[in-house]
Amino acid sequence: MSVVEYHKLASSAKYCTPPHFDFEDLERKYWKNITYNPPIYGADVSGTLTDGTVDEWNINRLGTILDYVNEDYGISIEGVNTAYLYFGMWKTTFAWHTEDMDLYSINYLHFGAPKTW
Length: 117
Fold this sequence. Notes:
Blueprint: H1 3-10, H2 23-33, E1 42-46, H3 66-73, E2 84-87, H4 98-102
Antiparallel strand pairs: 1-2
């Protein structure tokens, strides 16, 4: 599925965020409906939307200690010292993993509504 196809699906009446009064109302709707019509989540997509020649805001060129793991040992750990893309829609849920808690990480939003933590 392409990014354009995913966006079209996520924006459809079946998958879009329902009308709500506030975040508490939206959270109630989430828990009430999470098992019905489950969301489609694009997780762990290796890659980046940044041109490889760009230094500014390039997640693959942050200049961290993890760069030495790759340089010194030739070890590339996808999603840890390489960029991953995630595609979400209403009701997609992402659990924190060990690396999210134990290592430095960065997230940013390319497009759409902000995450709710």
